[in-house]
Amino acid sequence: MASEVSYCLSWRVAVEANNARGWRIVPSQCVRYVENYMLGGQYSSDVDAVVDQMASYLEGVAVEDGEKDAWILDVDDTCLSNLPYYRERHFGGEPFDSASYKNWVMRGVCPAIPAVLGIYEKLIERRFHVFLVTGRDEELLGACTAENLAAQGFVGHQKLIMRSRAHRGHGAVPFKSAIRRQLVAEGYRIRGNVGDQWSDLLGDCVGDRTFKIPNPMYFVP
Amino acid sequence: MASEVSYCLSWRVAVEANNARGWRIVPSQCVRYVENYMLGGQYSSDVDAVVDQMASYLEGVAVEDGEKDAWILDVDDTCLSNLPYYRERHFGGEPFDSASYKNWVMRGVCPAIPAVLGIYEKLIERRFHVFLVTGRDEELLGACTAENLAAQGFVGHQKLIMRSRAHRGHGAVPFKSAIRRQLVAEGYRIRGNVGDQWSDLLGDCVGDRTFKIPNPMYFVP
Fold first, then answer.
1. Which of the following CATH numbers is that of domain B45-212: 3.40.50.10540, 3.40.50.1000, 1.20.272.10, 1.20.120.1200?
2. For residue A45, which residues of chain B lie inside 8 Å, CB to CB?
3. Which residue of A68, A157, B140, B168 is surrounded by the most CB atoms within 10 Å?
């Protein structure tokens, strides 16, 4: 048991450091470990640690009037949590099922991740231009996503940017890179970029600092 | 105590995910935690997990005769361990002292990190062009580094590339990026890139895959 915990902790750290890539499900011997991690307090502690790093970085970043200082935040498991969905699916120990996942998302009831909402509010208050950028399909999930975000307190961002028809079928790295290049072309300086997947944080124009929110439940290439 | 372990684990994961940057010493409340981590087995387990990822990635990477398929490995705390030195210095809980560190390095007695030596031997056997790239000063530390590596079994690499006069005073990212750009200009394809610092793995021409070896004892910008 001790060695299983040790193995699963090593696996989780390998995920967070982008050493483990392309995995489809949580290793079966780590499902219980991931459950304990997500519900037992360590996940919250880890999110708090990332948000603390954001907050201390923010202290050194001044926004001047007229400057286009931007932050980018991903949506799923960055702003909004899918933990209630994954709880019913062995915390990522089952293959991804797009039909049931879409049904879940369309209900529009994802709870905010509290620490991320806190720093989001600070960014808005500090007058950064905040862009929420998500691979969710705009046509199908646009309305429910906007409503879910607003209901959970994510109010005041510059724009919610979703996957349009033009980007259907593209991987997350090219899609999000294209969005960031566009923002930079419009004169924005990306001061920070926050996501739970490395595919949010790699590619072009990744920003002055990236922040990886922990997520041991699934991997988006 | 439980909450201190939880805090220090969160800090360590933040380091591995490149969320915590620019830190100068291990937080004082985490020195004991880092000691337990480095000596108690979890560090070895984490290194093994990274090396396992390298091994399974390697299975899908073919080397063809005449192709210039390269791997890059950092030296300090990637191939060779400085743990005996940091043991005497509170596992990173003291500010870096370049004089005593140079004395340690000049003794040439850094032990190999066993799992990394194992995968290094596999790379050599598979006929990859392996480059060891280190920020150690060539003039001062060239001889002792080459001898230390050879004595520990790191034999058969294409070249040990150290910091020459031209790169003195440059940060690790520009220095290592310049070396990698040069290798790519010479026709090498960097199939993998391994280091214990994110400054080994970011910048230009980082390679097809990067592998972050854990290191909670110090941060190289």
1. 3.40.50.1000
2. 6-7, 9-10
3. A157
